[in-house]
Every structure is written in C-alpha cells, then in structure tokens.
Amino acid sequence: MWKPHIWRTNCSLSLRSERETMQKSECSGGTQLKNRVTGNDDQRTSSGTQIKHRNAVQRSKSSLSTSSPESAGKLHPRPSDKLNPKTINPFGEQSRAPSAFAAIYSKGGIPCRLVHGSVKHRLQWECPPESLSFDPLLITLAEGLRETKHPYTFVSQEGFRELLLIKGAPEKAVPLLPRLIPVLKAALVHSDDEVFERGLNALVQLSVVVGPSLNDHLKHLLTSLSKRLMDKKFKEPITSALQKLEQCGGSGSLSIIKSKIPTYCSICC
C-alpha cells in the first residue's frame, strides 16, 4: 500500500543528500582553486626572490671587481704611470699587427738596446755606430718616428740622432735623402702632436748634417710645416726650425722657404 508521507520523507532525504554533495563539491573546487592561486603566488614570490638574489650576487661581484687592486689602479693611476703613459711590451702578444718598426725591433733588427737609467734612458749599441751602414738602418729609425708607444718612440728618435752624430755621417746620409724625405714627411703630417715634434727635430738634425743637399727636397716638406704654423703652440718651434734650415742650406734655401711660407722672416733681416 502506497504511503505518501514515506515518499515525501525519502524525497527530502534525497534532495538533502544531493544538496550536501553539491556543497562539498563546491568547497572542494574552491579549495583547489585557492590552492592553485596560492601556488601561483608562491611561484611568483619564489621567482621574485631568485631574481633579487641574482641581482644581489651581481652587485656583489661588481663591487668586488671595482674594489680589486687592478680596478683601483685603473681608476686611480699611479704617479709612476705618468712617466711612460704609453708603454708597450715589444715581446708580448699584441691586439693588432705590429708596425714595421716594432716588428724589426722585436726581432733584434735594430743593433742597440734600451738601458733604463735612474734619471734618463740611453741606448747601448751592440757595435760602434761608426761601423754601421746607414742603409737601411737610418731609414728604419726614421720610420720609427711615427711610433706612439714606448720604447719605440725613444729608440727611434735617439737612434736617429746618434747615427747622424758619427764621423762620416754626411757621406752616408746624402745618398739616402730621396728615400728619407717621404718618411720624414709622413711624420710631419701625422695627427699626433708628439710624432710631428719628433719629425721636426729629425728634419733639423738631418739639415745640420747634409747642409745644402737638402734644398732640393725642402719643397716636399714645407707644406706640412706651413699648415702647422697656424697652430700657436707650434709657431715658435717651426720658426726656429725654418731658421736652422736657412742657416744650414745657405742662400739657396731662403727662396725655397719663402715660396712655400711667404710670411717667413729671414735670419739675415
């Protein structure tokens, strides 16, 4: 026999059971979603912590490298660095191909060596300079005037000067003038002021030795001197050099100098 009140009771129980099941499912889903969000937050926090740690390590390495003696030396150069600011090891590995003079010097092609003194440097020749042939040694030393690093700068200019001081230098130097002049001109047109000064000094030294023999080649050099003469800091040394060229070249040199540098005043005036 059908009993309505029992059926209602069963339906109520069934509905209540379904409702509880749905609530549990929603709670479980919410808990999973919450855990997922929390996990993402934890991952973000962990990633942020790793990035901060990495940045801290990099800053620490940077501060250590800055505080190292080598870095300190670069930031605060030693007083002794001013003596030879552009020093190079001729026997060490270079970042670029060495110049012709540097290559010859490294292989022992220059028969002298640099002796470091407490006050100044000097050259020690392997044999008396008087016994040496100027060809090609004098030309090689002239090419070295364009060097910008020590010891090449000192060896080239001092070696050039000392060779021209030996007995019999005029007879050895005059035949080399056609090959020497282009090399000296390259030093006189160089953008480095110190290279220009070494070239100017070498020109005066050569003029003293060869005398009027240099007149035929002066026109190739005076254009470079005329351009540098516009620079105030070179006006005095160039004027002094021109006077020396006139004095050593005789009367024929004045007209050549005036043709290229009309503003030049003769020492005879």
From TrEMBL:
Residue spans of biased composition, Polar residues class: 24-38
Region (Disordered): 17-92
A Pfam family: ParcG
Biased composition (Low complexity): 60-71
InterPro entries: ARM-like (IPR011989), ARM-type_fold (IPR016024), Parkin_co-regulated_protein (IPR019399)
Full protein name: PACRG-like protein isoform X1
Origin species: Sapajus apella
